[in-house]
Amino acid sequence: MLSMNKMRFSAILSMVLFAATVYSQKAGDNGISVSEKAKIDALINAMTLEEKVGQLSLYQADWDVTGPILNTNHLNLIKEGKAGAIFNAYTVDGVRHLQQMAVEESRLKIPLIFGYDVIHGHRTIFPIPLAQSCSWNLSAIEQTERIAAREATAEGLNWTFAPMVDISRDPRWGRVAEGAGEDTWLGCKVAAARVRGFQGTDYKAGNTLMACTKHFAAYGAPQAGREYGTVDMSMISLYEWYLPPFRACVDAGVGSLMTAFNEIAGVPSTANKWLMTDLLRKDWGFHGFVVTDYTSINEMVDHGNAENIKDAARLAFNAGVDMDMEGSAFLDYLPGLLKEKKVTLQDIDHAVRLILEAKTKLGLFDDPYRYCNKSRQEKEVMTAENLDFARKMVSESCVLLKNPDQVLPISENVRSIAIIGPLGDSKKDMLGNWTAAGNWEKCITLVEGIKSRVKDEVEVYYEKGCNTNDNDRSGFDAAVKIAEKADFVVLAMGENGWMSGEASSRSSIGIPGVQNELAEIIIKTGKPVALVLFNGRPLVITKMAALPLAILETWFGGTQAGNGIADVLFGVVNPAGKITMTFPRNEGQIPIFYNGKNTGRPLNPADSSDRYLSRYLDCPNDPLFPFGYGLSYTKFTYSNLRTTVDGNKINVAVQVANSGNRDGEEVVQLYVRDKVGSVTRPVKELKGFQKVLIKKGETKTITFNLTTDDLAFYHPDLKKYWEPGEFVVFVGTNSAETLSESITVK
Ligand code: BGC
Question: Which fold has domain 636-745?
Answer without folding.
Answer: Immunoglobulin-like (2.60.40)
